[in-house]
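Postdoc handover notes: sequence design on the structure in folder B. Input tokens:
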């Protein structure tokens, strides 16, 4: 099964539907399977006195509050219907993360294929139960959480009868330092909870995606931007078009490198096999009628004669013709 690649547009449209469409174009052109946005009403998720998160302060130097910042990044709900239709026409899957009940209900009207739950909701029990009650497949991000908190979140979702849940390993830092990625935790979650797992990658390079693919991540999410220099909290930790195209290619090439696990010669190996393997040859000139002894045989290239492992069949047999030194011995020669 191929890794499902999600281009995380998030709020990198900066509240502009036309910029959002360009991100859809970018995701499609770069080979992503899906593009994900965030559907929210700022007041539904963020209080008046909330300060920006530290990474938001680092990436966006304006002095506004978190609510003021998020308000500028908000798209009206009806714009997501436009984006969903635009994605359908482009042939890329539309996904969006709800930040509250209103946005959840609206996304259900759009018939999104699954619900992506952000890391900030891992302890939001009532919201998790509401999401579970939708009976939609769920991808639950796990940034900032412990294994115990993830277990509790799963139990709350499972209590609704919805067990169609996947877990996304995530480090909620933008960008994430290599030392903080801890990809083995993704494997730990798969083994602990017996669910499919993936990675929300906030690093700046390609290594995390390659490693996650080798560790059998079923899906990988990556923030994208048209330009890292655009003002906003997430652009600096996102990938511009050319880098994201390379990112997708690295994942696909890693999948090809891993193969199917069956050990067998490739078509190209079959072509060179006769040139580099060995056959049974005469170790010296031999006359017709000679009874073959082991010291009369040698093993050299090319490899289209009798295989060395079958030498025991030749020993004690009579030659039917003269052989020169280094001449291949064939079955019809005995």
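Designed sequence:
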């Amino acid at each position: 099964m191929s890794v499902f690649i999600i281009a995380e547009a998030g709020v990198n449209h900066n509240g502009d539907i036309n910029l959002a469409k360009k991100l859809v174009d970018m995701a499609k052109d770069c080979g992503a399977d899906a593009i994900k946005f965030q559907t929210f009403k700022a007041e539904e998720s963020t209080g008046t006195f909330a300060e920006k998160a530290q990474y938001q302060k680092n990436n966006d130097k304006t002095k506004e509050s978190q609510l003021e910042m998020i308000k500028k990044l908000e798209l009206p709900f009806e714009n997501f219907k436009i984006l969903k239709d635009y994605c359908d026409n482009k042939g890329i899957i539309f996904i969006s993360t709800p930040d509250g009940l209103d946005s959840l209900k609206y996304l259900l009207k759009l018939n999104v294929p699954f619900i992506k739950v952000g890391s900030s909701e891992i302890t939001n029990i009532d919201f998790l139960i509401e999401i579970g009650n939708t009976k939609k497949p769920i991808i639950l991000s796990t940034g900032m959480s412990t294994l115990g908190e993830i277990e509790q979140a799963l139990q709350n979702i499972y209590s609704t009868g919805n067990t169609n849940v996947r877990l996304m390993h995530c480090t909620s830092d933008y960008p994430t330092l290599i030392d903080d990625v801890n990809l083995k935790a993704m494997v730990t979650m798969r083994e602990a909870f017996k669910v499919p797992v993936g990675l929300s990658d906030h690093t700046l390079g390609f290594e995390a995606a390659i490693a996650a693919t080798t560790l059998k991540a079923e899906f990988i999410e990556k923030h994208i931007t048209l330009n890292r220099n655009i003002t906003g909290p997430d652009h600096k930790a996102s990938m511009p078009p050319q880098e994201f195209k390379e990112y997708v290619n690295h994942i696909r090439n890693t999948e090809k490198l891993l193969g199917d696990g069956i050990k067998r010669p490739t078509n190209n190996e079959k072509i060179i096999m006769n040139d580099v393997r060995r056959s049974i040859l005469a170790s010296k000139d031999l006359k017709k009628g000679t009874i073959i002894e082991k010291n009369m045989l040698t093993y050299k290239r090319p490899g289209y004669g009798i295989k060395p492992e079958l030498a025991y069949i030749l020993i004690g047999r009579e030659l039917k013709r003269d052989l020169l030194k280094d001449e291949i011995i064939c079955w019809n020669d005995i």
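Context for whoever picks this up: The CA atoms of residues 148 and 154 lie 10 Å apart. Don't rerun without checking with the PI first.
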